[in-house]
Amino acid sequence: MTESGDPLEGLDDVDAVTRAVLTASRVLVAVSASSLAEVEDRVTLPQFRMLVALSSRGATKLVAVAELLRVAPSTAMRMADRLITAGFVDRQTNPHNRRETLLTLTGEGRRIVGSVTSRRRRELAAVVERLAPDRRAALIEALTDFNRAGGEPPVPPTDADVPYPLGWGDLADLAAAPTAPDPAEGRAPEGPREQPADRSWDRP
What we know:
Largest sheet: 3 strands, antiparallel
Helix content: 40-55%
Strand order of the largest sheet: 1-3-2
Strand content: 5-15%
Distance between the termini: 61 Å
Number of helices: 8
Shape: elongated
Structural class: mainly alpha
């Protein structure tokens, strides 16, 4: 029988595991914030999420990006306008449907996504290196199961020439979720806005 005060007591308790994950999430949030520090004067967190979405999806209609980020199309349009003005996103006519407008990353937009995600990977690796090798192996198994339970796609290896995944849940589930305004984007600084040539990106 486990003695009172034993660190293994309650190890399988859902509340104990939840508290451990919440504690770990604070580490992950801190690393995420640190990785964005170098670009925070150029792009907000909601705007960066749009850049990551475009990195994952390639050329995409704005309404589809809004669904992925779970924001209203009008909010996504404001974000896109600012990113276009900043030179991180480009807007072009769909070559297969002239009535549609697509959003895509510019070279600078891709550079920002790559820089932030690379720094995030390095900072996480520095934390993992402090663990003993056997604990790293146990962590891989535990987090793999946790990510699978949460429906999160795996991050590609460092040498994989594929877009960085969006994250924040399964893409199909996000696309099917109802949209809502993003309050964080509302606090973004106002700047010059380029008006779209047409409003076709508002239509599904």
